[in-house]
Fold this sequence. Notes:
By secondary structure, this protein is an alpha/beta fold. It has a single domain (3-373), classed as SGNH hydrolase (Rossmann fold, 3-Layer(aba) Sandwich). The chain has 14 helices and six strands. It has a four-stranded parallel sheet. The protein has a two-stranded antiparallel sheet with strand order 2-3. Strand 2 (152-153) and strand 3 form a beta hairpin. Helix 2 runs antiparallel to helix 11 (271-278).
Amino acid sequence: MNIRKVLIIVACCFFLQITFSKPVIEDEDEVIAKAKMLLEERRERIGDDAPFYIPPFDCPKLPSPPPATNVNKLRPGNIKVTMAVGDSISAGFAMKAGHFWDVKTDFVEFRGSVFSIGGDQNEMTIPNFLKNYNPDIVGPSVNVSLPLDAVEFDDHILVPWDPFVTHLNGAQSGARIEDVPAQVDYIVEMLHTAYRDQVDMRRDWKLFTIFIGANNICPSCDHKPYSQPDFYEEYLDQILDQIYTNIPRTFVNVVPMFNISQVWTIHNTDPYCVFMWDTLCKSECGCLTDNSTAQDRAIMDETATEFNQRIYKVVNEWIAKDLPEFTVRVQPFIQDLVIPLDIGVYFVSELDCFHPSIYADQAFAIGLWNNMMSANKQTSLDPNNLSIICPTQNTYLQ
């Protein structure tokens, strides 16, 4: 057995040991049996299919656009490379999971299905949408990966990316904003090595999506230094400068945070979710899942609002530079998201009732795409009224 396989096995075992807190019911078999029962009861009660419609991406193809010479005149067909950084949401953790006791199918990241960077066939993702206008898109992540990125040492996550799966998706489960510079380093290295024959760094246009902050917000009720808005702002500006310096000809999306606290309200409507948060998932998000108070959750919401204000501040400063081959845009499609309670359980993973489900992720893809296609930015999603904006030959990325 080679050293890589040994490290994967060791890291996986370590991950499974540290990710969940000890169940309040000491008999593990009893915990699993009760969770199974509650999940089956839930499925009988609500069914498996979401009660809202995810429209297919059926926009007509367009003629190949002329080469773009300015980042503010980019058409969808001008994009050649897609990249992303972030945390477990952008890694796709537990997106399609359904039984927390099945390690092989549930404790994984569904990277090929991630709204911003997934490339698996028939998935609702930005790269797949872009392939309608440029079939030569490179960079999307594919298939699944073990969430080894969540392993921490000395308060920093390890970075064992699998480039055959992650490709130009540098997201890591458990990441905070201070971990993103290492993710950008990974992408830059990949561009200069694995992608050196596919990507012309000076001529090809690139799309880079940043969605990060949940793991900075989750401990905000404990007033951690890395939960402070000044800390977030400083790192965001540093990350954008890092991308600008190392990855020319890039259009950057920055996705602001939504109020994570509403997931608590969703979980509280479902006996299975309540049981999971009381046992195996208490450590998911300390100020939310670990016997949180209304004050804890209010602090989280305030922190998210402050982070978003800093996002707009930093992004506007970069827009003001008016650079010909680099720009940044806030794509606020979930900034004011309010998840309807009657469909809330469909928006969260069956594994932990915390991470976004595949249905939520598909809605995110539509929201991000529509923001990119329109100067009139929508700041929320209505799951009951989703539609896709189809570009014309005169549509530029916004």
